[in-house]
Design brief:
Blueprint (H helix, E strand, L loop, with lengths): L1 H25 L7 E6 L6 E12 L2 E5 L4 E6 L6 E2 L4 E5 L2 H36 L5 H33 L2 E3 L4 E6 L6 E2 L4 E6 L4 E7 L12 E6 L5 E9 L10 E7 L11 E9 L5 H4 L4 E3 L3 E4 L2 E8 L3 E6 L1 E6 L2 E6 L7 E5 L9 E3 L1
Parallel strand pairs: 1-23
Antiparallel strand pairs: 1-22, 2-11, 2-15, 3-10, 4-6, 4-9, 5-8, 6-7, 8-10, 11-14, 12-13, 12-15, 13-14, 16-21, 17-18, 18-19, 20-21
């Protein structure tokens, strides 16, 4: 009797467990989609040209002197902020002091000669009007007066020249900024044309980028560009203000000048950058034909000796593509195969990526 009842009880228990298992499967919640940001083509109608460049100050100067003399004092240090008109370097000017004394003496002598000549000239003008002096006497006195006047003017001009030379013995800042280098120390001999100190203006920074011949026709004045600082990965916005029309003196590449729109204390003059110039897809097929598809290093995935990059497949799922890489330019790597020119890829992800995981494009 007990054996007969055990079979229905076991069957009921199995059915109950099966039902519970089905309910458990039905209540499983799928993993949340991983938030990602895409790189590459934007909306299928725009791509970029990447060029290397360097940040420079809009105002910069290498200051030198027109005179020879020993450096008596360097008043500033590298990295020091300076104001317009501030004294930077002093050069010994004892010879100028001697010349100045000679010129001042010459001026006194010329002034005395001019004063006497003018008195004599005025007196002879009166005598001539009274017919007490001849025309020749008046002419001689007029010549003496004019010579004395010219001598005084010449002495004054020599004083102006000496005063101008004094400016080259005291080197001052032509604008406010920062000292970037000093090339002399106290006791060094300064020569005409020799750079003593270099300064850069701190108000505005710009980028000098070199663009290849095949790309320069797509770069226009006024276009907005992205500037990626290689050392800090800072992303800045800039505006093209000048496009060179010749590559004669720049090694076959064209110089493009870009103004940075915002100031950032982490961004300094001399830093290297990558500049991204946006261009319309219909105007060029550069990426597809020139094997110049560039992606940032952070978008790549490394597994052993293989390198891949995640793309977005149907149903917003992540798909890992194995790629073959080419040259590296700063933070950008050339993709030779495995990724189409008009295909977007996952640049960053808020979670772990794997094949088939759902993604949410931000």
């Amino acid at each position: 009797m007990n054996h007969k009842l055990s079979f229905p009880i076991v069957a009921i228990a199995l059915l109950f467990l099966t039902a519970c298992g089905d309910n458990k499967k039905n209540t499983l919640i799928e993993d949340p989609a991983v938030a990602v940001k895409l790189g590459g083509m934007e909306a299928g109608n725009q791509q970029t040209i990447t060029a290397s460049g360097k940040i420079e100050a809009e105002n910069s100067a290498n200051l030198s002197t027109r005179m020879m003399g020993y450096v008596t004092k360097v008043h500033v240090k590298v990295g020091q902020r300076i104001s317009e008109g501030q004294l930077l370097v002093s050069v010994n000017n004892s010879d100028l002091q001697a010349k100045k004394a000679q010129v001042e003496a010459s001026i006194l002598q010329a002034t005395a000669a001019y004063t006497n000549a003018k008195k004599d000239y005025d007196r002879f003008v009166v005598l001539f009007s009274q017919q007490s002096a001849s025309q020749k006497e008046l002419d001689d006195m007029t010549s003496r007066y004019e010579m004395a006047k010219a001598g005084l003017e010449g002495a004054k001009q020599m004083r102006n020249e000496i005063q101008a030379q004094f400016k080259y013995s005291n080197i001052t800042a032509p604008f406010s900024g920062t000292v970037t280098n000093t090339f002399v120390k106290e006791g060094d001999m300064a020569n005409p044309g020799m750079t003593l100190v270099s300064i850069e203006g701190a108000a505005h920074l710009q980028v000098m980028a070199m663009v290849a011949e095949s790309d320069i026709t797509y770069i226009k004045n006024g276009m907005t560009v992205k500037v990626l600082v290689k050392s800090s990965n800072e992303e800045l916005e800039g505006k093209v203000i000048e496009v060179s029309g010749s590559a004669k003196n720049t090694g076959g590449q064209y110089l493009v000048k870009i103004n940075l729109n915002k100031q950032n204390k982490k961004v300094l003059s001399g830093m290297f950058v990558n500049v991204q110039f946006p261009i319309a897809k219909e105007k060029t097929n550069l990426v597809a034909t020139d094997n110049n598809l560039m992606v940032p290093k952070e978008a790549l995935v490394y597994q052993g000796q293989l390198t891949g990059i995640y793309t977005v497949g149907s149903g917003n799922t992540a798909i890992l593509r194995w790629v073959r890489l080419g040259k590296t330019t700063g933070n950008q790597v050339e993709v030779l195969s495995g990724l189409a020119a008009n295909e977007q890829y996952i640049l960053t992800a808020a979670g772990k990526l794997y094949n088939g995981v759902k993604v949410s494009i931000q």
